[in-house]
Amino acid sequence: AIATLTAAIDSATAAEDRSDALFLLADAQFRAGRFRGALMTTSEILFHYPDDPRTAELWYLRGVAAYQEGERELAEQSFRNALAGGVTHIPETEYWIARTNADAGRLDTAERYAWRALTAPPHEFSDDALYLQGWIYEGRDSVTLASEFYRRLLEKFSKSDLAQDAQLRLGVLEARRGNYESAYRLLLAFIPRSERQREEQTFYLGEATSALERHDDALRYYTDFLRQYPQSRRVRSARYGSGWSQLQLRRYDDAINS
User: Fold this and answer.
1) Which of 59, 66, 126, 250 is the least crowded, having the fewest Cβ atoms under 10 Å away?
2) pLDDT at 5 > cutoff 80
3) What is the arithmetic mean of pLDDT over 109-115?
4) Exposure class string for 191-225: b at 16+ Cβ within 10 A, else e
5) How far is CA 107 from the centre of its chain?
6) CA distance readout (Å), 25 to 40, 77, 89, 92, 211
7) How far apart are CA 225 and CA 203, in angstroms?
8) Which residues contact 74 (CB under 8 A, 6 or more apart)?
9) What is the phi-psi region of residue 112: left when phi exceeds 0, alpha when psi lies from -120 to 50, beta otherwise?
10) Overall average pLDDT of the 186-211 stretch
């Protein structure tokens, strides 16, 4: 489809209206994950056909493509243009504005738009908005509120791709709140899908079992963590935890070395 549309556009005369073909091409590039191409095509449309009634939807597509390409500021401005132009899927656009602001550390703006996306009727990113709200509160160290939103996501969207990550976040926050038995159950049941997730899971399993005075288990988790993630920012804490567990197990020489 992309090849056919590109050929049709290239063969068109300067006087011909190419808007339909360009819109179809941008959509095809977007669906194929060719986001850089989609950005180039949307730029051409906006330059040649700025008054086309489909422009608001085009701004939305351009915003997502820009986000996927790592161009966060362009993405946010595109989403704002989509809202100003009367885009039909408003909650989804508000979610993306919240996400771009959260990425930039502008948590007040992020929270305002995330809340709008949360309180809208169900939409494509309802689960993402719940997760994002939890992430915003976690970034503010509001552990209780963050836990509430992660738990709501698990309850309402148990089949969501984000449910697993919410379970990890909830387990970590439970450990930080001192609810170690709950943290241990959540983290033990979690199946990591990335090294980042496994790193955090392993460390906090060590923390939870240490706090529960299951020091043989704690030592096993800390040892695994230190072997697998020697460059982690948590290495110093893991060494301390390992030493503490060895001390409780009366392995004094090992404790001194840790």
Assistant:
1) 250
2) no
3) 96
4) ebeeeebbbbbbbbbbbbbbbeebbebbbbbbbbb
5) 14
6) 11, 22, 21, 22, 57
7) 6
8) 63, 66
9) alpha
10) 95
pLDDT of residue 254 exceeding 90: no
Q: What is the sign of the dihedral through the CA atoms of 158, 162, 168 and 171?
A: negative
Could you give the angle at the alpha carbon of 35 between the alpha carbons of 109 and 22, nearest 5°?
110
- Rounded distance, CA 104 to CA 50, Å? 29
Q: And the tokens for 86? A: 């009367």
DSSP string, 126-154: HHHHHHHHHHHHHHTT-HHHHHHHHHHHH
Q: Is the C-alpha dihedral spanning 21, 27, 32, 34 positive or negative? A: positive
Q: Tell me the pLDDT tens digit for each residue of 116-168.
A: 999 999 999 999 999 999 999 999 999 999 999 999 999 999 999 899 999 99
The model's confidence at residue 8, banded by pLDDT at 50, 70 and 90, is low
- What values do phi and psi take at 13, rounded to 5? -80, 165
- Under the banding of pLDDT at 50, 70 and 90, the label for residue 32 is very high
